[in-house]
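Table S2 (continued). Query chain:
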Amino acid sequence: MESQNIADFPRPVHHRIPNFKGSYRACQNIKDLEVFARAQEVKVDPDKPLEGMRLLALQSKKMLLVPTPRLRTGLFNRITPPPGATKGVLRKCATSQGVRNYSVPVGLDSRVLVDLVMVGSVAVSEKGWRIGKGEGYADLEYAMMASMGAVSQGTPVVTIVHDCQVVDIPDVLVEDHDLTVDYILTPTRVITTGCTRPRPAGVMWSKVSCEMMGRIPILRSLRSREKQAGKDVTLQDEHQHAVETRSPHTAPPRPCDPLQPEVGEDVPSNSVYVGNLPGDARVSELKRALGERGVAPLRLTWQGPQHRAFLHYPDPAEAQRAVSCLQGLHLGANTLRVALARQQRTRDLTGGHAGELHPVSRPSDL
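Corresponding output:
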């Protein structure tokens, strides 16, 4: 998609659900489907190529639910445009910024009945097999909705992709926890897959890792509820985790406590090192460049006199994605040096103190 210039902002499209030229045209095809016409509550993923779908849902006065990115703060946000919203305001509501500014959270106790699920994809087959980024969030979101009773086996699932993303996917790659799709919308086609493979009826805890549990608070809440209800909620690596983290000098950890590094060890942080900043660079210029590449951080530590900055993200995966997206970034005449940062737990040989950030392979700042 990059080499053929099919990709669209934000670029590069690696490590994300890729946006593409013609995504709005592909979204318009949903109006030809009866499942959209009769739907009242729709769930649409927050990915950029589905922006046109979110706008159509709002213009059609449907209740729009958008998952929280990476499920960091909950499961859904319900988009609530202001009264009398113009088409321009609705367009803003359909963007990622609008999702943040015009939404209210929807928790596990909310009585939601989703009539239509719309997901992004990296690749999809005409059989209905779907491949995402490989992190499992779309599959997990659907499974959690099933556990809540928000979806059923009959709830239609639609994906929006470019024609080049419709490929043959071997059956052997599809597992029982994978989400399949009923309809594929491209800029030129509407494909009805006729897929009859059963979808997950709830979270398959044996497929969930302790590391994922540590990242997603709402998943921990759902697991606690299902455990109280008497369900088997044993995780994929729970017993192994308990054995590996046990030390003769420490008390046995609770299951799924995150692995703790040894004293003095570099531990991966959620931060990204940016070096070789021009001497006259302003923090606003860097923030603008980050926004243009779609990797705005939660927080930015500016160290202009040292010609560097640190970008702080919600988790290491987001930090790694930022590193990939920022390669080759320029400010002024300078090509910035970008690397994943690490955080020293104790004083190190270079004189750093506990908690001080460094690049993984520290380049010269000047």
